[in-house]
Amino acid sequence: MNALTLPLWSPYVGGVGIGILVWLSFLLVNRPLGCSTSFHKTAGMIRKITNRTAVDQNEYYQSYPPTADYHWILVFGIIIGAFVSSSLSGVFAVEWVPPLFAATFSANPMFRWIVALIGGILLGFGARWAGGCTSGHGLSGMAQLSVTSIVTVCFFFLGGIATAMITFALAGGL
Amino acid sequence: MFENIRSHRSAQLIVGLLIGICFGFLLQKGGVTTYEVIEGQLLLTDFTVIKVIGAAVLVAMPLLYISRHFGLTEQHVVKRGLGTSVIGGLIFGVGFALLGFCPGTVAGAIGQGSLDALFGGAVGILIGTALFAGLFPKLKNGIWAARPFNTTTLPELLRLSPTVVIPLCMVVGIIVFWLIEYLGL
């Protein structure tokens, strides 16, 4: 069977490929692989449309300017890559509520949208506070044995495991 | 060696797009662009996420060390502290569990058709980063900068050479993988 049309590969194979991509990112463009910067830059670009001076005067946007660069485009590439992969294997499907969410919490798309939005806000805020996400700290940082990244990733998972266990337990108990 | 690419913005954008496409492809094929797999990891019933991250780190670690040794790559490590790692990490973790994706996998989920990832997750992340940018001037001299770390890298912390720590990490990693498979997780 053709590997490209398989719905899933071994996670180890996927991981090895991603590890090589992390290395290529350093080698080709001298930048770590990271995803949260792309959202930060896009948000800055959108805000610039409505209030340019607020963005220009903001210290954080001055340190990490909202420009179309390597880190900005990465996330758009991910969307394309996942679309190609899921289309080739026939698993692409337009979906509002993940089946596990529907079975555990609610099948109401509005409720899922609100939870996803709140989750997203916390994720974006936390990623910038922590200076990176699961790719910047989890892949690039840990591969360089960064103390900051290793500690940060432990707290990503501590917070995530605690929240998932509590929310799923509450939903199951109600 | 790759100064041509590194100094040209358009070349950087092309490389970024290509690396992003491969990244998205591998995340999707690796199975981590679905809500069920991410929540399964956080509920400790499915270890796909750890397998993907672990394999990637164990491959990138020696490659980066060797290429840096030969002057082909540079180190990009930030040294922050408990103020960023603990607080930022925990806020991120809560969002991670509620959304069921992280900033990279949310993009992959959008690519495979998840509308909650697009209109909920991605929009929320944009709002969250903007909120942080707005609050940063107030945070930077306070809690954000609290308790800085004394060391930058693990070999420095352990006072061991990277040539010892890296093989050690790889052995520990392989044992952990073996254990996960042995337990059928």
Tell me what you see in this structure.
The complex is a heterodimer of chains A (174) and B (185). Chain A is mainly α. Chain A has a domain at 1-94. Helices cover 74% and strands 0% of the residues of chain A. Chain A has helices spanning 11-29, 36-50, 52-57, 59-63, 70-89, 99-104, 109-130, 136-143, 147-173. In chain A, helix 2 (36-50) crosses helix 5 and helix 8 (136-143) packs antiparallel against helix 9 (147-173). Chain A is globular, with a radius of gyration of 19 Å. Chain A starts with 10 loop residues before the first helix and ends with a helix. With 185 residues, chain B is mainly alpha-helical. Chain B has helices at residues 3-7, 9-30, 35-42, 48-69, 82-99, 103-111, 115-139, 154-158, 162-182. At the A-B interface, helix 1, helix 2, helix 4, helix 5 and helix 6 of A face helix 2, helix 3, helix 4, helix 5 and helix 6 of B.
The helicity of chain A comes to over 70%
Structural class by secondary-structure content of chain A: mainly alpha
Distance between the first and last residues' Cα of chain B: 43 Å
Calculate Rg of chain B over CA atoms: 19 Å
* Number of helical segments with 4 or more residues of chain A: 9
Shape designation of chain B: globular
User: SSE order of chain A in H/E notation?
Assistant: HHHHHHHHH
Specify Rg of chain A, calculated over alpha carbons.
19 Å
Quaternary structure annotation? heterodimer
Q: Name the chain pair with the biggest interface and residue counts per chain.
A: A-B, 126 and 126 residues
